[in-house]
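Researcher: Dear colleague, please comment on this protein.
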Amino acid sequence: MGDIAVDKESGSFVRSDFDAGIWEEIKPYTEDLLNRRMTCSGCLEKAIRDASELSEHISEKGALLYIAMTCDTESEDKRKSFLDFVENVRPKLSEFSDSLNRRLIEHEAIDNLPERYALMIRSMRNDVEIFRKENIPLGVEQTKLVTEAQAINGAMTVEFNGEEYTIPEMRVFLEANDRQVRSSAWKGVADRRMKDEDRLSDIFDELIKIRHRIAVNAGFETYTDYMFRAMERFDYSKEDCLEFHDAIESVCIPLMHEINSKRVESLDLGILSPWDVNEKTGVGPDLEGRMPLRPFADVGEMVERLSSLFHKMSDDLGEKFDMLVEMDTLDLDTRKGKAPGGYQYYLQKSRVPFIFMNAAGLQGDLETMIHEAGHAFHSIYCGDLELIGERSYPIEFAEVASMSMELMTQDKWEEFYDREEADRARIGHLEGIIFLLPWIATIDSFQHWIYANPNHSREQRKEIWNSIRDRFGSNMEWDEYEIFRDISWQQQGHLYGAPFYYVEYGIAQLGALQLWRTQRKDGEKALSDYSNAMKLGNTKTLPELFSAADIKLGFDKNHLAVLIEEVRTAMTELA
């Protein structure tokens, strides 16, 4: 190994002054790994450790560039820096990773490695099987298109009552008791989205073509098949997802319609309109005409009260949350030019979680922050695992960490409300689960059709989207906004930036409900099960991670029905 690749003071593979955003700086390390002499399993272990260290630096650099870009989508410099990394580092990194993976898995000593490497070796073999050099530039084009879509969405604002609001800020008016206010606000958002719907449809059309080419290049018939392999869905199948859709239709849809019927009756609506309830979250005006819930005035207050809440749950969680605040890795306010949505991004080298969201003072914002804090706790719990591959937990279990935290904090929401308001928030959150699962089935079913039929027309896409919405959605009257209903899938950013990443929320929701059911009987056991499983990171298979939390991985109707009945029971207790 040459001196260029060693920090002599620390003994690290990577020098302390290394810039992971410049390929010329990265290249000597990749050449070392590809050319070094490896004669035994110990040599392979050393190569894996060194590659992990290099990956930590590069992953964190990419994360910081992405964070900067999403925090300020109007900055051309930040967008350019991110895209420069995408175009000039990631393609070469993909080729290097494939070459190193091949060198490792083809080595005669690979089967002599300890058991801790089993899942990493499985991933390496899978990556080698689906890697195609010709897909690298297609991946770059894909990222460019997704970045453009994010910029379009981040720039959207609405003029309402003489003021300019971001799309997240407009959610405040959608909870108003005055139906005219809700209607005007909803229509204002829809009208604004319609201005960019054609370009967003163009981008989606281009993404579908690119993704189909990627799949065919890799030897798959459809992008669906390709993504199930690329996302390492080794423990469930397309058929399991379709069974899950059926279970949701059977178990959740009747209850959702029941909730909506009560809404129509209580509010004397005659018929439900899209501004009377959010189909994804179940959020709408209070049925008794009470003022909308406002858990905090600003993000500073939210953070302070959450610290108290988590400390009351356990010293462990309280200290972890305070660490997030002290490290100043939170960007929580909504503002013009900021990308929509929320996420937690783990900085692999620093071992620090970053949380991004668009808070506007709503109960939904509180739930989002708790959700992202759950992701951060997960990252911290497994952050002491040595290798980056050991910390890169499955998406399905990542969402168990976040969704269960939403549920397990419920009994502490008096930190933000009086008892009556807290009960309202708890009922609303549980109702939201009833609405979210059908929305998950909607998005997942839509994606299955989209990529099974990549040459479809926009008219066909509209018809399928509306038929899926008829199957899983609320019964409501759209009037002159049927044209918006036709393209309302554009609001789900995952369709652009994270294809096929959505059913995981449903799988995880069932895991989260099981942890919550445990908590309702034994709070200490629930927290212990949570931490025990989260500490495992990516060192166990998905079913084993579920088992470590004393919960079951399942998709069938009976499994779902038992958990939804628990939700119904809790809602009855709170009413």
